[in-house]
Amino acid sequence: MDKSWSVSDRLTLRLEVEEFYANYIACLDEERFEQWPEFFTDDCFYQIIPRLNFERGLPMATWRSEGRGYLLDRITAIRKTSVYGPRYMRRIVSAVRLIEQSAEGFDARANYAAFETLPDEFTRVFSVGQSHDAFTRIDGALKLRRRVCVFDSELVPNSLVYPL
Amino acid sequence: MSSESASTPNWPEWPREGLSRIPYWVYSDAALYAREQERIFAGQSWNYVALEGEIPNAGDWRRTWVGDRSVIVVRDAKNEIHVLENRCAHRGVQFCQTHLGHGTEFMCPYHQWTYNLEGSLVGVPFRRGIQKKGGMPAEFDMKQHGLRKLSVARRHGVIFASFAQDMPDLGDYLTPPILELFDRVFDGRKLKVLGYSRQQTPANWKLMFENIKDPYHASLLHVFLLSFGLNRADAPNRIVIDPTGRHAAGMSWRAEQKRTEDNKEMRSLIEGLKLQGDSMLQPMREYERYTICLMTIWPNMIVQQQSNTLAIRQLVTRGPQAFELAWTFFGYESDDAEMDLRRLRQANLMGPAGFVSIDDSEVLGFTQQGVARAPEAAGVVEMDGHGWAEEADHAITESELRAFYQAYRAIMDI
Hints:
A: six-stranded mixed β-sheet; 7 strands; B: 414 residues; Naphthalene 1,2-dioxygenase Alpha Subunit, Chain A, domain 1
């Protein structure tokens, strides 16, 4: 199949993907974590991995979720089991690029930044990186089959509690 | 900090209660931190630096840390491993800036002084000057200006280094009970690095060591651990402390996921908690005895075997108020794909996003916030008495902390 798009298809899809990201980060920024899994397929793969591991082909991730169940467990941790201080997280997604189409959907990449605000502190850059996303369409709606956030930051500023 | 302030400490006396108090000035005093660097990390200690499998070939090197000093672990052409301070002998430049690499020599970018893989100085540009002008004095002896070399010890693929030249044998340093547990995980099988994770926690480095040496907290703070019965005080527990008090290990067995008379004080236990992604926790028995073994090896190494997650946490000091925790997750070369996957999935419990570890890094930050503002106050560590023994068969104890501070005070002379 043709892996690229016509100009008009690409522009339309790009707008749709940008809107998807805007909704995705609004869901997280507003801490509506219970809705977060709805952006994914049931058999999704989601991970947050340091760039050092990613570029060397080392499989260990900082956060590894295989399927919706893993996402739900993370929500349970955020809501019930993890002990952590209050924080705001604000995410920015930019430089969205459509990479190529495949039989299952299409791949996209984007830069992301996440800013964290802790009590009594100035807001700090928490994580900066690139997302490698694979989208598919279910009943007309875009869903993430795969989302891999590769972060540049060599040191995680203490704890990664909320998703990116 | 100037050497003057380091040599004229002004910290108060240790509280008269002795080992059952930890004065809060130990977590924030800059002069004390300088003495720790000198006497502990640069002193008579075997510091964990790397795994042999990270530098398998001649010329491979890894940049790492001893205390807050950068060092390079390198394998030479004769298969010898050297640990060199990452500081040019000329003007002090930290010349190596990448984590992992390969080469035949090290060259400082500033004036291109060059060292071989053993750390000896082999090249000084314009040493003889240009047209007989300038250059080094005739008596300049290259042999006197190599990189600072550390002592090296290796055991079953694990590399340790020391700034001290007269170090005891590693086995004697670890002592027999700790060596036995070390060999349980590092049993001679070739290790396979699965990846790295690095985080910085806003707390004094000792608080991290204390956290691992504190089995009392595990059944209270870690809702995830205790609800799933992974590490709980009402399950069998064993504590081993080496005779010097420096190293320790805590072992336990998995408990049942239910309420009993013994766990009624664990307020945060959630009965019937179930994982939706149940493939995350399907451990396979790998070792004889214990499902968890956590070791603290003085002064910078934590060895963790939690079901099938194997990790080394290397403590890197970042001033009195912060430490870096550099995690190296590993398995064995002989692991099959299924075991690899099991280790990767279970690692969700650990690291900066760990279902369990988040609790610790957060609480250590809160602790630092409290203690740094009250250096005159002291922590109370009286669980299970005022002293310590080399063995305990329960987790309701703070004996490892008392042992740690007994060793610490002797080495620090405070």
